[in-house]
Here is the input.
Amino acid sequence: MKGFWNKQEKDTGEKQKKKMSGKKKVLVGIIVILAVVVLASVVKGMNAKQIVTTVAAKKQDIFQTLDTSGTVVSEKNMNYYAPVSAKIGEIRVEKGETVQEGEAVLTYDQDSIGDLKKITELNLAASKGGYQDNMEKNGKQQALYTEASVNLDVLEQQIEDTQAYIDSVQKKLDDKKAELAHFGSLLEISRIEWSNQQDSDEYQNLLILIQQNSYEQQNGKELRELEEEINKHTRILNEYKEYLSEMKSQKSSSESSKLSSSAQTQLTANAEVEALKLENTLDAIAANEQGILAEFNGVVTSMEAVSGKTPQEGELLFTLESLEDVAVSLSVSKYDLEKLKTGQEAKITIAGKTYEGQVGRIEQMATKNANGAAVVGVYLTITNPDQDIFLGVEAKTVISTGEVKDAITIPMEAINTDVGGQFVYVVKDGFLEKRSVETGLSTDLEIQIVSGLEEGEQVVSTSSAELTEGMEVTAVEAQ
Here is the structure.
């Protein structure tokens, strides 16, 4: 682009020369017009031709630029927030002052940040200890619950088995008693039958058997053994039932005391979150114990921190903006917006010094300016910034929006517009020809003709309502 700017400067010089000679042209033009007026007065009343001024369509390089102004801004800025809640010590860089990367902008009161570090370490230890204690207690309750659950299953089976065994022994006892009672009844019947022979041996034997049967029913060894077996297992059954009651109580108590799976997950998550917060605080203390450092070269554009004040964690302390990544902020109308695209080169003048630049960013949303008109933000990146650049100052800009080599051009005032579009009047063989044209790039003075004209064709340079297609005219070429 250096060649472009050299070319533009050369063309600008030539234009200035042309402007100088343009005054002469204007003077000559006035003379020509006066001559035309005189001539017209001579031929007044006669059927004279319309006199028109023409220019020749010429081929030349055309450069389109957009001249405007904007404000110098930083394209890299950072807000610094309080990493911890500790008392501010010294403010080393005030608002508007520059700072180098790695330099401390402010420091913390050492006693305050030391106390904060100690408290945070104790809180971290307490948090971890509390979590461990809760998990151990939960482990104990879980063990009691598991023990009770297992024992209940075993006890219920043991109770069932023992009760079944007692029932079976009781049946044996009942059967034995029934057997003895039945035998006793038979003996009593026999005794009655032999009662008229009481002196007989048979009768006497029956009495002995009846006595033996009665004894067996009351104190028989087999009956006593069965009863003792029943009593023994009844005691065992009662012990099982008592233990079962204890296990039910233990299960209920431990179940209400132990943590559910979701509660354990929540407890663990809460403990990890708390530990992470405290560890992050310790990391922030370690990183900023000696102060908050600038992360790049720049200027402090706001300072909210106050020496001696203790800000809340996350509170804004200051803002740093780069002096190396700078741009010019512009607001352009929809008419200029269509000429712009990223990458276009620009000349930027700040406080009398010129810098190189290019269109770096075009916003995708329009806003309203002070007059209520819709404008779009455009940012020109300054590619060679130096120490003489100040944020917030005005900058003049010249953006190269287009260039065409060997373009067919005519003066801007030669273009006419009607419902059919743009057109010009061409003088051909002494008559006017209305010619539709397609235009391209334009400058303040000239416009490119993309189609509709050839180099050298004579175009009427001024419009008039009296001109019509096919009119016979006398052409006077502008000087």
About this structure: The chain has a mean pLDDT of 87.
